[in-house]
Design the sequence.
């Protein structure tokens, strides 16, 4: 085994494996059409069958240098499943279709594409995305990962959709969600969401911003500046290694469009 093969094995969520070729949904066979993404934390694939197109996301199951990490895959999958259920019925959030094993979840496939750099979306796109984000916030959830353009889908209907709630924040009342500390964290993270929305609007449709909004889009909250200095170098290093061992020069693909 080469060094590249070994790194590929330990740094991918499923190691040397890929998502299954077939899966059963409602007792019917659905076949894999594409692997959308496979990184350290999860592998995501598109399936098609009698129920239409569905997305399977499998949390990490592979060991890391011999250390078991399946517990992490179970934890993240359970968390994301709860988030999809909490956000059920919001236009712009894919419909949750249930769990798959202990580390997997299923959701509907949205016809569309990830928001591209410099893409000229229609005049109502970011207003609709703001409304979508506002509804997510009203349900006491912070999206957290809005910085990544790939998480914003432009549907074939021209409307915005959000995917990948793996690191979104919600703390139920029975777990301390009503405490002042939890409310403070929620407010900080939701403020970061609103900043990233403003930043995307400035990059994609600056003509729709007022002078005040344009200036604000260059003033990130202190929490974002702190995160950039502390964690972004590690994230960039991990992605660079994964791209190298996969032989792909660009960023990873969409997760469950």
Sequence:
């Amino acid at each position: 085994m080469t060094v590249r093969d070994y790194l590929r094995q330990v740094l991918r969520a499923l190691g040397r494996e890929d998502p299954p070729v077939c899966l059963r949904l409602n007792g019917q066979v659905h076949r894999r059409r594409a692997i959308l993404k496979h990184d350290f934390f999860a592998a995501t694939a598109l399936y098609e069958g009698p129920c239409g197109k569905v997305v399977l996301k499998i949390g990490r199951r592979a060991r890391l240098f011999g250390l078991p990490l399946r517990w992490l895959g179970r934890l993240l999958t359970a968390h994301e499943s709860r988030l999809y259920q909490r956000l059920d019925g919001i236009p712009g959030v894919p419909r949750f279709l249930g769990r798959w094993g202990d580390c997997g979840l299923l959701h509907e496939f949205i016809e569309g594409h990830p928001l591209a750099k410099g893409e000229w979306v229609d005049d109502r796109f970011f207003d609709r995305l703001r409304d979508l984000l506002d509804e997510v916030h009203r349900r006491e959830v912070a999206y957290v990962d809005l910085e990544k353009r790939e998480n914003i889908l432009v549907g074939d209907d021209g409307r915005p959709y959000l995917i990948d709630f793996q690191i979104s924040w919600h703390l139920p009342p029975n777990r301390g969600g009503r405490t002042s500390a939890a409310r403070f964290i929620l407010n900080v993270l939701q403020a970061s969401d609103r900043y990233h929305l403003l930043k995307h609007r400035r990059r994609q449709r600056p003509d729709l911003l007022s002078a005040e909004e344009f200036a604000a889009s260059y003033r990130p909250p202190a929490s974002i500046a702190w995160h950039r200095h502390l964690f972004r170098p590690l994230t960039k290093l991990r992605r660079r290694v994964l791209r190298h061992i996969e032989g792909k020069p660009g960023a990873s693909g969409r997760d469950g469009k």
The two ends are 34 Å apart (CA to CA). The chain has six helices and nine strands. Helices lie at 3-11, 70-86, 125-138, 180-204, 211-216, 222-246.
